[in-house]
Amino acid sequence: MLFFSAIPISLVGSADNSNWIFIPMLFVSVIMVLWFVLAPIIATSIFRNTAYKKLAKSGFKIEKIYKNYTYSLLIDISGGNVAIIYSFNPANPYIFSAKRIQKIWIHEDERQSNQYIGTVGVRFMVDNEQEMFDTYNQRIKKKKIYLPPNHPNIIAARQSAHNIACELDQAWRNSSDQGQIR
Predict the structure, then answer these.
(1) Which of 10, 28, 147, 156 has the fewest CB atoms within 10 Å distance of its CB?
(2) Rounded CA gap, 175 and 132, in Å?
(3) Can you give the pLDDT at residue 139?
(4) Closest Cα partner for 82 from 48, 45, 124, 129?
(5) What pLDDT was estimated at residue 59?
(6) Under 8 Å between Cβ of 136 and 117
């Protein structure tokens, strides 16, 4: 459809009576682009909010929410539970007890010549599987502007990763059992 909206008037018909054809074609092209760009964003937002309500009904107290491009990390510090809502399946949250977390560490990746070209984030092991939550990821940015290690964005990413690690550790301490997936 986008291709057809670029056809000149002389190819479609005579210029005196067929100028009207471009208005519907342009309208359909714009609607199609908006649908494919905005519909996934709106649908993910609706499903994520539905998952938040589902968690609240199940007794999960959402105290901290962290979002990145891959998933949302929700922490119930007082109850000792953690939930992960993946962006590719936001309707089904993955809920587990924080006692199942075996290891937590802050990860900094690929520093070359005093510039970050990789990621900064927190990593944690749940049942021998590594979960990665990046607070700064240079790889997905469109502009490849590499920042020095003392740049405010890198410092903020380190601080955010430290906060997430501390809150996961606090939830682990408050968790009472090994827990099962709900």
Answers:
(1) 10
(2) 21
(3) 54
(4) 124
(5) 87
(6) no
CA dihedral 16, 17, 18, 23 (to 10 degrees): 100
Q: Which of 95, 91, 97 is nearest to 53 (CA)?
A: 91
Burial tier of 106 (Cβ tally within 10 Å: 0-12, 13-18, 19+) = middle
Collapsing DSSP to helix, strand or coil, 11 comes out as helix
| Contact in structure between 48 and 65 (CB atoms under 8 Å) | no
Q: What is the model's pLDDT at position 90?
A: 83
| Alpha-carbon torsion angle 120, 178, 80, 66, nearest 10 | 30
Instruction: Tell me which residues of the chain have a pLDDT lower than 50.
Output: 1, 179-182
Q: Is 127 left (phi over 0), alpha (psi -120 to 50) or beta?
A: left
